[in-house]
Design brief:
Layout (H helix, E strand, L loop, with lengths): L5 H8 L10 H7 L9 E8 L5 E3 L7 E3 L1 H14 L3 E7 L18 H12 L4 E6 L12 E3 L2 E3 H17 L4 E4 L6 H11 L6 E8 L6 H7 L20 H12 L4 E5 L5 H11 L3 E5 L1 H12 L5 H15 L3 E4 L2 H13 L1
Parallel strand pairs: 1-3, 1-4, 1-12, 4-5, 5-8, 8-9, 9-10, 10-11, 11-12
Antiparallel strand pairs: 2-3, 6-7
This protein binds ligand PBG.
């Protein structure tokens, strides 16, 4: 062994970052960020019928639930301490039309489910998605005129959809449509109907992403979607534009903002959280879930560790919370760890 030069030692090895990592107790002591059950929002897919729990093939471990089965699963999520669920309907194709009329039906799947959940599990937050894609025959989030998704006409319908959901008991309205001006319009519409305490979680920076594929399988829009969503969802090449979108939604009254997808857009999560210092959420979307599950199923990575590491990464980037299909699984692990 060559003796260390004293000067080099003084300069370089007085600092040994590994000292703080030498054992579990010290790693825990210096840890900067922590994932908690309170950070998790569970997206739940709904389908008509009773006693149903249909597998979503491209999302192993994720199901479409009929309302009764969803209630059972949500009771479990609430018992684990998951703060909120986000509801997504797989609408009967016979009920889909070019204008997404079923979005305004007080008896649609999401409204019926919201009422039942608030009755059976009053303490869990119910987040409902505002956008027309589960209800349109063409799979777009708005009204299609020729080749255009028309903005203002769509916003008027989204306002009625939001009020319809609030009447059914939704605690948080989450517009995921990316139309211009919808947050302000929805805020006014909700307030006018006496729903001033209903929060708005805006999908403020939502990108036109390939990672939504499995979600579209789950809600049955993959086959019907005509073209793509690039005229309303953001260009994945843009970052400053995300800050402009978030600024607009906050000005218009958003209580919480979201960046979507998640891991590929952690830089955006970081910028948004740091710039605005407002509750910023990230959506770990269906394709991200599918990637981890597919690799784990092949034995190519440790699925549980990859799940927890990916969720922690959102916290490190500055997210207040994460919408994730892993929510219940992660909550079970976090609870187990907390008890031991
Ligand atoms: C549609 C909506 C999408 C997601 C949530 N709401 C898909 C899309 O924009 O086509 C994606 C969620 C996911 O992939 O997990 N309004």
């Amino acid at each position: 062994m060559v003796a260390l030069d004293r000067k080099a030692h003084a300069l370089e090895l007085a600092q040994r970052p590994r000292r703080n990592r030498k054992s579990d107790w010290t790693r825990r002591l210096v840890r900067e960020h922590k994932l908690d059950v309170d950070d998790l929002i569970w997206p739940v897919f709904l389908v008509d019928g009773a006693g149903k729990r249909e597998a979503v093939v491209s999302m192993p471990g994720v199901f479409r639930y009929s309302i009764d089965a969803a209630l059972e699963a949500i009771v479990e999520a609430a018992a684990l301490g998951v703060p909120a669920v986000a509801l997504f309907p797989n609408t009967d194709p016979a009920l889909r039309d070019p204008r997404g009329s079923a979005a305004l039906d007080p008896e649609n799947l999401v409204c019926r489910a919201s009422r039942e959940i608030k009755k059976a599990v009053p303490d869990i937050g119910v987040i409902t998605d505002v956008a027309l894609d589960p209800y349109t025959s063409h799979g777009h989030d708005g009204v299609l005129v020729g080749d255009e998704i028309v903005n203002d006409e769509t916003v008027a319908i989204l306002c009625a959809q939001a009020v319809n959901q609030a009447r059914a008991g939704a605690d948080v309205i989450a517009p995921s449509d990316m139309m211009d001006g919808r947050i302000g319009a929805i805020r006014v519409a909700l307030d006018a109907e006496g729903f001033e305490n209903v929060q708005i979680m805006s999908y403020a920076a939502k990108y036109a992403s390939a990672f939504y594929g499995p979600f579209r399988d789950a809600i049955g829009t993959n086959k019907t979607l005509r073209g793509d969503k690039r005229t309303y969802q953001m260009d994945p090449a843009n970052s400053d534009e995300a800050l402009r979108e978030v600024a607009l939604d906050l000005e218009q009254g958003a209580d919480m903002v979201m960046v979507k997808p998640g891991l590929p857009y952690l830089d955006i999560v970081r910028r948004v959280a740091e710039t605005f210092r407002r509750p910023t959420f990230a959506y770990q979307v269906s394709g991200e879930y599918a990637m981890i599950e597919a690799a784990a199923a092949n034995g190519w990575l440790d699925g549980e560790r990859a799940m927890l590491e990916s969720l922690l990464a959102f916290k490190r980037a500055g997210a207040a919370g994460i919408l994730t299909y892993f929510a219940v699984r992660a909550a079970k692990i976090l609870r187990g760890a907390a008890q031991s």
